Structures are given as structure tokens and as C-alpha cells.
Amino acid sequence: MLIQPKKTKYRKYFKPRGLPKTSTKTHKLTDLTCFAVIATESAYLNGRQIEAARQNIRRKVKREGKLEILIFPDIAISHKASAARMGKGKGKVNHWVASISAGQTLFLLYGIDAEQGIPALHSGTNKLPLKVKIYQL
């Protein structure tokens, strides 16, 4: 099931312009067996990419521990057919994207040891189209 908002204030939104800058958000990793996936570059991730990474991580850790997803695709991207003539309004919503800034935490994984958690996060991040770092506390 794709991640998308259940309800929005408006049906269609403006197209996002430009990538976000670096993030100032920080997360304190308090648990001793905690791993974090942090983006090192800015990008847009759609719901399919986030879900593919989540499924891959959960499959590798055999559904043990707790996986937190700290990003949510809430920006609507509309699409109109290329053969459509001018006018007749804006196209319907095609997919939803999340704006990711460099330095932002994407996933947190708790309650897994290092020999199982790090390869799982590494295989999950292979599904993402941006460079990330995996941190362990």
C-alpha cells in the first residue's frame, strides 16, 4: 500500500520549485541498539520509493525490532497526458512526493543488533535515489 495523505485541504497544488537546502533537524539517538539513515543530499522521494525501502528493510530484519519512518510524501504531483491540447484545466494527481533536505533523518531502526541491522538498512537504502549515511549509536 502506498503512503499518501488521507485528506488534503486542496485537490491540487503548485509544482515544487527547486530542491530544499540542508536540514537543521536533529534526532538524539538514545537507545543503544539504534541505527539511523540520514540523507547526504537533497531530493524528492515518492511514496513508491519509500515503501520499497521499508519493505526491503523489514524483510531483512525478519520483522524484528522497530522501524520508524520519519518522512511522509505530502506534496501532490499532477500529470497531464502529453497528447492533450492546451487548456481544459490542470491534470489529475499522479503521485505524492516528500521533500528531503540534506542532513534529514529518513529511517530509525531500534532493537536490532549491528550484524543484522546495518546490512538491512544498507539493502533498503539501495532502493532510494539519493546518497545516504547509516549511523549507529
Q: Would you give an account of this structure?
A:
There is one protein chain. With 137 residues, the protein is α+β, with helices and mostly antiparallel strands. It is 19% helix and 28% strand. The chain is built from 2 helices and 7 strands; from the N terminus they run E-E-H-E-E-E-E-H-E. Strands 3-6-1-7 form a 4-stranded antiparallel sheet, covered by helices on one side. The longest helix has 14 residues, at 47-60.
Regarding quaternary structure, what we see is single chain
Tell me, what's the shape?
elongated
Instruction: Give the structural class.
Output: alpha+beta
The biggest sheet, with number of strands, parallel, antiparallel or mixed sense and barrel status, is:
4 strands, antiparallel
Q: Estimate the strand proportion.
A: 25-35%
- Share of helix, binned: 10-25%
First and last CA, distance: 31 Å
The total count of helices amounts to: 2
Radius of gyration from the alpha-carbon trace, in angstroms: 17 Å
Number of DSSP strand runs: 7
Mean pLDDT: 90
What is the topology, as strand order, of the major beta sheet? 3-6-1-7
Q: Which parts are unreliable, with pLDDT below 50 for 5 consecutive residues or more?
A: none
Give the ordered list of helices and strands.
EEHEEEEHE
